[in-house]
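The data layer described in this paper is built around a simple, fixed record for each protein. Because each token names a local backbone shape, the row as a whole describes the fold. We quote a single record here, exactly as it is kept in our systems:

***
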Amino acid sequence: MSEFTDEILKEATGKSRLTFALILKAELEESDYNQVSLAKEIGVSRIQIQNYLKGAIPSAEVFRKICDVFGQSENVLKKYIIQDLVNRTNKKIKNYDSSIEIVASNQSI
């Protein structure tokens, strides 16, 4: 796949909200790599590749290797990892706020 752009990725994945997992999936589909060959190339297990495809965030070292394998800019892909982390944090905050509201409403009864 050529250098990532939001338009190319949205077209390739069919998703409006992109994540590192979706980008990795699109890259695998467009390349000669499969989960096993990518795992061997970057020195992780196939299970770890599956975890990345399910939303796990790779270590900085593995992230660099993935970028190198697919010839992509680390800076471009970093924004999607940061976006994933921000979305997860916001979801946790929302769940925490909901829990506080439930506790507060139970105390006022």
About this structure: The helical segments are 6-13, 20-30, 35-42, 46-53, 60-70, 74-107. The radius of gyration is 18 Å. The domain at 6-107 is CATH 1.10.260.40 (434 Repressor (Amino-terminal Domain)).
